[in-house]
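Working notes for the structural subgroup meeting. M.R. asked for a predicted model of this chain before we commit to crystallization trials. I am recording the input and output together here so anyone reviewing the notebook later can reproduce the run.

Input as submitted:
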Amino acid sequence: MTYRIDALQYANWSEKIFRQMREGGVDAVHVTISYHETFRETVLNIEQWNRWFERYPELICLGETGDDVRRAREEGRTAIFFGFQNPAPIEDDIGLVEIVHKLGARFMQLSYNNQSLLATGCYEAEDPGITRMGWQVIKEMNRVGLVVDMSHSADRSTIEAAEISERPIAITHANLHDWAPALRNKRDDVVRAVIDNGGMMGFSMYPHHLKDKSDCALGSFCRMIATAADRFGVEHFGIGSDLCQDQPDAIVEWMRTGRWSKQVDYGEGSAANPGFPPQPAWFRDNRDFGNIETGLRAVGFSEAEVAGLMGDHWLRFFDANFTPQPA
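Returned structure, recorded in token form:
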């Protein structure tokens, strides 16, 4: 049976969504537990997840390694992996990299749209690349088993991160730029740098990343995946839906603005439509992963390739990259 792994969601978590994960046969989800939170605020988010694990033990469990995905499958649960969309939780302290890994974090983006202490975000006008601190933090992330995620980072920063990192890095949620030219989508040289280092990319169903946005057709999305597979090799790709289910529109403003600006940063939206766009009809929530499998088969992927794209490739990546480097 095909594993189903989603490499990024930021839903308004509830029992309803946890049950939909089970209805959709989703074995593992990488969940965002920090956008702009400090270390202490991130710990409070972990506390909340601990309460959910205690309250819904038949539905979800903490994931820390690939074997936790296998165990969750056997037990009929969904393994939850923690990640950050911004390095804010490590503040300006490289020692916190190891601490957050011990607390369960397995992915950390080096920047979220803006310049950070580590790297440049994709909305900055200039991209000077990885900073001095960023170079050091990448090495420490490699050491402890915290995956470098460049989903919201600018091109030069992403290419340099792939060159600096001694372990594979990831773009957990984005699409090909020449299919849908959003700032967040990735040009071929960026994708090539990531996969040449053994990295992974997850394809996003967030409407602003899609061709024709909310009206994107399943066939178009799956043909884009086929194009990526032809160019770079199917083994480097999976799903990272960026599902923001049941979030109020006000969360978009907080995600993009945080505490850094007094103005509203509409980012990928617009002043006329600042909230969350509707999901495409073929992927409204976790129960719809089967539609993607059907679409992948329709564009010519084999059963083994479909299994890889839906989760097996991410599982291989988890096995190799979530534990500390041997001494």
